Fold each of these.
Amino acid sequence: MFILVNLKTYPCDPVAVAEAVRDVDESTDVARVAVAPQATHLERVAETGAETWAQHVDPIDYGSNTGHTLAETVADAGAVGTLINHSERRLKLADVDGAVEAADRAGLETVVCANNPAQIGAAAALEPDAVAVEPPELIGTGTPVSQADPEIVEGAVAAAANVDSDVSVLCGAGISTGDDVVAAGELGSEGVLLASGVAKADDPTAALSDLVDPL
Ligand SMILES: O=C(CO)COP(=O)(O)O
C-alpha cells in the first residue's frame, strides 16, 4: 500500500514528520510511505531521505508566471511526485490536464484528486499515474471514508478501471488507523492519502507505525 502523508499547512515540524516517514518506510516491506510538505519545505524534507511529494504544481512552463509553482522547480527541490487538484486546491479540468502535463515534463509522479467516482473517471482520462477519491465532507473528521462511504471507494475503483486500467486508485479522508488502511485495500484501493492523523499526532512515528502494522 502507498501511504502519502499530506502536511497541508498544519503547524507541524515538517522535518520531524519526514524523519518519521523515512524511518517507518524503511521498517516495512509492505508499504511505501511518502510525505507532501508545503512547497517552501520541499528541500529540507527531501534532505531527510524521505520520499517527498509536492502538494500542487501549476499548469505552466518556464516564463512569466509570478507566484506560480513550476513543476521543474519542485523536482529540483527533491520532490518525486505531486498531488494535483486536491479538494483544498481545486483546478479547472483544463488546468488539471495542464498540471499533469507539466508534472510529466518534469518527471514527477502524479496523483489527481477528485470528490466522487464521476470525477475520478474524468481524472483517469487525463492519464495520471494515480487518482485519489476524497469526499470533502469527511476530510479532517477522523471518520474514515473506508467505513463511512465504502461505495464511493468501490465506485472510484470501477470508474478508473473503466477508463484506464493502468491508473491506480487511492482514497483518503478521515483515515488514521491501520484498520482504516486495511479496509481501504479491501475495497480495491492501492493506497491512502491522509493528513491530520499524522500531522496533528504528538508522536508521528507511533501514528505511522500504527498505520502500517496490520498490513
Ligand atoms: O485531505 C486529506 C489528505 O490529502 C485527508 O485529510 P485527513 O486525513 O485529515 O482527513
Amino acid sequence: MSDTCNQTCSSCGDTCEDRKTERTDFFEKPNELSSIKKVIAVVSGKGGVGKSLVTSMLAVTMNRKGYNTAILDADVTGPSIPKAFGVHRENKGKEMSAYPPKSSTGIDIMSVNLLLEHDTDPVIWRGPIISNMVKQFWQDFVWTNVDYMFIDMPPGTGDVPLTVFQSIKVDGIIIVTSPQELVSMIVAKAVKMAQRMNVPILGLVENMSYFKCPSCNQEHKIFGESHIDQIATKYNIDVLARMPIDPKLAKVCDDGEIEFFEGSWFDHIDEILKNMEERK
Ligand SMILES: Nc1ncnc2c1ncn2[C@@H]1O[C@H](COP(=O)(O)OP(=O)(O)OP(=O)(O)O)[C@@H](O)[C@H]1O
C-alpha cells in the first residue's frame, strides 16, 4: 500500500495488492463536435515558476511544426495565456461563440479571461466552481481538429488540479520547476499526483535556470545551482529543457507577442509527443 493511501481505490492509479475496488473513470466527454487527439497537462508544484510561459512555448513550437494546437487555460485564478497571445474577446456583452478564439497564428485558446467583462477582474471562486469552469471549457466549446491540446493546470497539487485530472483524460504530463532548494519536494508531489492519476510523465522543464549576461556572455545561476539532473535520475524522468531567465521573454508575454519569439528549447518536443503511448 502506498504511504499516501487515502483508501479511495476507485480514483487511484497505483498498482497495489491491497486494491479493494477497480478504478472507475469519471472522465467527461468533450463536445460531440470536437476532435482532440492528444492532451498534455503542464503542471507545477507551486505558482510563479513559469508554467504558463512553458505551456505557451510548447503550443507555439508544435504549431510552428504544422500541428493543429490548442491551449485550455485551466489556471482559472491566474489566467495569463490570453495576454501572452494578445487574444481578446471581440464580442463582449454578446453570447460567446461555441468555437474558441484563435491566436494570430491559429492556436485555439480558451481561458476565463476571455469570459470576463474586464480582464483585470479577479476570479474569487472556490475549488469546485473552478473545476466546473474547466469542465465547461472542455465540454461546451467545439475544439476542431486539434492534434495537441496543452492544459495550463492550476498551480500546486491540491484539490483543483486533482479534480481537473479526474475529469479530463490527459495523455501526458510535463512538470515545470525552477532551480531552488524546495524543488525536490515539489517535484516529488507532482510525480506522486501523476502516478496516482495513472498518467505518464513526459519530462521536466527547468525554467529560470540561468541568466546569460549580454555583456560578458557568461551564465549566472540567479536562483542557485540546479538539482534537476539528480531529481530526474531519482524519479527516472527526462529533462526536456532548461530555459534561461530572459527579459525579452517577459516582454513578449506582456506585449501579447509570445508567438513571434524565436526560442529553440522545445524543438525536439514533437518526437517526444509523437512517441507518447496511447492511453486505453
Ligand atoms: N524564463 C523567463 N524569463 C523571463 N521572464 C519569465 C520567465 N519565465 C516566466 N517569466 C515571467 O514570470 C511571470 C510568471 O510566469 P508565468 O505566468 O508563466 O508563471 P506561472 O507558473 O504560470 O504562474 P502561476 O502558477 O502563478 O499562474 C510572467 O510575467 C512571465 O512572463
